Amino acid sequence: MNQPNPGAAPAGPPQPPAAPPALPPLQGGQLVLATIAVALATFMNVLDTSIANVAIPTISGNLGVSVDEGTWVITVFAAANAVSIPLTGWLTQRFGQIKLFVGAILMFVLASWLCGIAPTLPVLLVARVLQGAVAGPLIPLSQAILLGSYPKEKSSTALALWAMTATVGPIAGPALGGWITDSYSWSWIFYINIPVGIFAAGVTWMIYRTRESPIRKLPIDVVGLGLLITWVASLQIMLDKGKDLDWFNSPLIVILAVVALISFAFFLIWELTEENPIVDLRLFTQRNFLGGTIAISVAYGVFFGNLVLLPQWMQEYLGYRSVDAGLVTAPLGIFAVLLAPVLGRVLPRSDARIIATVAFIGFAIVFYMRSLYVIEIDTFHLVMPTLLQGIPMALFFVPLTAIILSGQPPNKIPAAAGLSNFARVFCGAVGTSLAGNAWNNRTVLHHERLTEQANVNNPVFNQSIEATKSLLHMNTSSAHALFDFQLNTQAAMLGLNDIFYVSAIIFVMIIPLIWITKPSKGGGGGAAGAH
Known about the structure:
By secondary structure, the protein is mainly α. The protein folds into 3 domains: 28-220 and 278-444 and 494-530, MFS general substrate transporter like domains (Growth Hormone, Chain: A, Up-down Bundle), CATH 1.20.1250.20; 221-277; 445-493, no CATH class. Helices cover 73% and strands 0% of the residues. The protein has helices spanning 28-47, 56-63, 67-70, 72-84, 88-95, 97-117, 121-135, 138-149, 155-183, 188-191, 193-208, 222-241, 251-273, 287-317, 322-329, 332-346, 352-370, 379-394, 397-405, 413-450, 459-472, 476-509, 511-514, 522-530. The longest helix has 38 residues, at 413-450. The chain is globular and about 80 Å long. The protein starts with 27 loop residues before the first helix and ends with a helix.
């Protein structure tokens, strides 16, 4: 038997060729300009995850479809985006980081233009699928490119700058989308990507074209890609249409659930045994990647689901215009932007797990405050929790991203960032569907409870109706209609309070996930490892 050779490559799949020497970091004005360009590409991408939220009623009305059909504008983008993100590792090795990043930006610009000119809902949905698909590599590659542009000791600053744009995008989306929709046309929520994308692509290519990553021609995992698309699409459609089709009383929902479950099981088996998998699930064998990815994904799902519900509730039940509902969510970005640079300095000297824990506790406090909302709430008390939520937002992305990327060799960063971002974006889409369904179910439950005593045999109810008729000079049917409206508003408020309360509990419950990771000094662990 041959004796092991310490210098030989380990048994298993062929190893990639030795990586070339690391490129020197950028400096001065070139570094500033590069950071702005990469950040704008990230901002443009994450902005589109939420900018259409408040415009759905307007888009649906203009295209002559129901609001339920209009919500597919959000879900098809999220589903396509989630599917394409895990391809980042393979695509990067096949085409190179810079070519892929710039190409994805330009395709995103084209898809945005197609969205803006779409004359019908089917055309718009096809354009949104294309937009979501080409956006997949943008976030993970922006992380990798920024980490490679900064010195190792400044890697926490790079992650903090990335997080600033990644957190502000979903925050600015509803406010910007509401203002554009009310002031101009919904088409402009897509057209604004065109100048931003062209600038970002041009500057990125100008600075980075000589800093391309090595290219390897690997075979594509067609079976894994097919299984990934199948289970993601089946699950997302099931969650989106379940409420309309009465869930598992519908044969279609049952079929979708079975397809999603079986294809997911085969996906796991295939990807763990495939030599060149489309998604490197072996990354989950690393403690830091496992704990950090699950924590950031669940947290983002809860956060984004609530971010969609809040403006929807304000428009439907409080009478806010879309632009006003968007502006109420805007203060979320104040502390997120102000504290991000500070975090970049503090993180290298701190334990990232402690900072992430503080962020989750902050989220729990904010959602508990919201669980105390009443229907007579004023704008100040709506804005205050939103403003305070910016603090945990600033402490959220960077430490967990540092934990996830800690110890990863340079050639694994795109795959690791891609897989973790897939989990996060997919959980955001799932969280949105689950939050909407849960709110509907709790509203129905509270409505039933509130109407238990509201009948003509209850003298208190009859007295209330008579008092309303007398005070507001109404007839009986109008008084009953007003009562029903007030009851629906109260039921929706109680249902939303339940969602906020459960969200607070979830943030507390996922804190232990942070502490299964290995201790490291803040961004140093993750960032240094990233290099």
